[in-house]
Amino acid sequence: NTTLKERLAELIPLELENVKRVRAEHGKKSFGPVIVDQLYGGMRGLPALIWDGSVLDAGYSFPRQNHPGVPGAPSQGPPGGSEPLPEGLFWLLVTGEVPTQEQVTELSKDWAARSAIPEFVEEILDRCPPTLHPMSQFSLAVTALNHNSAFAKAYQDGVSKKEYWGPTFEDSMDLIAKLPNIAGRIYRNVFGQGKLPAIDPAKDYSHNLATLLGFGDNHAFVELMRLYITIHSDHEGGNVSAHTGKLVGSALSDPFLAFAASLNGLAGPLHGLANQEVLIWLSKMQAKIGENASDEAVKEYVWATLKGGQVVPGYGHAVLRKTDPRYTAQREFALKHLPQDPLFKLVGQIYNIVPDILLEAGKAKNPWPNVDAHSGVLLTHYGLTQMQFYTVLFGVSRAFGVAAQLIWDRALGAPLERPKSYSTAAIDKIFKGR
Ligand code: CMX
């Protein structure tokens, strides 16, 4: 029963050879033209990064039966569950292989054993004013975990470059393991009361997270957490949170510092905060036009949002050009568990209305919903109604993808990122007369 670290130790030399081969064969080949608009346009579509966990294309879809961890593949949940376990997904992200049930259970136990957070981090969280946004508290706590970083210590002790991945692996495992305790503490401090329950080593990661949030006895909510943490984990490397983590990691900042930077990017309303924004937008809509509103009233509200110079949160995407498969996965969950929920019905009604309006408005390249259009409705259904907390759960999940890449970046000796920037005057000068 190989552990994840043992399997990595076997895979790393093979991948080093593989990268060497790819670079020898293709290293000097052009990867398409760069046009000036891409420099001004947020580098959209610019091939610029290596990210091994996942790759998207505009029409990408993962039918759920092929999704790691769902029935048919190992790492499905304990008896009675049918959602994937994020443990299995992490193994897949790191190794490209589907783990055995035993390996998944070992990961659950390992993370439970690593889950405690230092007392001073608890104190930092307890001192935060409840008015400080949960994402800011989250980022503070993750930054502070760098106090015990194995990588930072090893670097100070003069570790060889070839050994970077070992302490990066340990930090990454600690990071993921400690997130439920951080998220749970923030949730209790800001919205709840009472003592935080202990992590149970016999339970899987998502079950423990649900328990710390106060929903551990609700089987459907536990299932939701398994699905939620799985689908938010990785979305190739160019999105703000993933890329930020990789960029900061490239300076050999340890995984805690790198991932705290990811969280600060995820906290932006065009990225992860959109799941909070969707619920705020829906609530305002309901307050204005009432429940069971007509399609006409919804259309008018959507147009008013656009005319007010705001985005429709939860719609559009920088890469996808169709309905986000993560939206569909959540819709399927809702159809199974909460088909009669009024807010779910509103989300469905909006799905039939918004794309046509965005197409008519003529700006958005993708008029379809993304992952954030659906998640808040599911959480609200089970009583997790505090919208400001939603992006924290996205953050817990995103650690899986970022951590997997940080391990590989250090294993493969990824260099400091330092692309070339230009001024508008320089662009003008370069292309004068051309
Ligand atoms: N509502 C209104 N306008 C939108 C829009 C939306 N949902 N999506 C795109 N547009 C607009 C853009 O603001 C842009 O307008 P300007 O030309 O005035 O700047 C124009 O359409 C073209 O944008 P695009 O190329 O289609 O989209 P981008 O790659 O620039 O941006 C995204 C992608 C997600 C930021 C954008 O679609 C958006 O703002 N959506 C709403 C916020 C959201 O849901 N974000 C979450 C994304 C998923 C995640 O990361 O968690």
Automatic annotation (TrEMBL):
Which domain of life does this protein belong to? Answer: Eukaryota
- Gene Ontology, cellular component aspect: mitochondrial matrix
Please list the residues that make up the active site. Answer: H271, H317, D372
Question: Which GO biological process annotations does it have?
Answer: carbohydrate metabolic process; citrate metabolic process; tricarboxylic acid cycle
Protein name, per record: Citrate synthase
Q: Which family does it belong to?
A: Belongs to the citrate synthase family.
Respond yes or no to whether keyword Transferase is given for this record.
yes
Q: Which residues of the full protein are shown?
A: 80 to 513 of 514
Instruction: Kindly list the residue ranges recorded as spanning the membrane.
Output: none
Q: Which UniProt keywords apply?
A: Transferase
Q: Keyword Lipid metabolism: yes or no?
A: no
GO MF, one example: acyltransferase activity, acyl groups converted into alkyl on transfer
